[in-house]
Amino acid sequence: MGQLNIKDAALIAEAKALAELIGTSTTEAIRRSASRASVSRARRYEAIMAIAEEASKHFPPGSTSDHSDLYDENGLPK
């Protein structure tokens, strides 16, 4: 895998402080943080998709968001 070079002094200091706080290396602290962020995003995505799935059950069959009949070939309202 490749190497990551971080040139942001504030970010480096924050990563080092986090590593010291949790008692790991800076690399491990960043790894854990990235993993938590990834898991959090995935859970949020799944929750949103579950809401969308549930909401779609309340629309009549065949409903779409296609409104192309309202616009001409140039995208202007008819």
Provide keyphrases for this structure.
78 residues, 2 helices, elongated
Please outline what is shown here:
By secondary structure, the chain is mostly helical. The protein has helices spanning 9-22, 26-56.
Structural summary, described in words:
This protein has a domain at 9-60. The mean pLDDT is 94. It has helices at residues 9-22, 26-56. Helix 1 packs across helix 2 (26-56). The chain has 78 residues and is an all-alpha fold.
| Share in helix | 55-70%
Rg, nearest Å:
23 Å
Largest sheet: none
Q: What is the tally of beta strands?
A: 0
What is the percentage of strand-forming residues? Answer: under 5%
Specify the number of helices.
Answer: 2
Structural class based on helices, strands and sheet pairing: mainly alpha
Average pLDDT number = 94
Task: Summarize the helices and strands and which ones pair or pack.
Layout: H1 9-22, H2 26-56
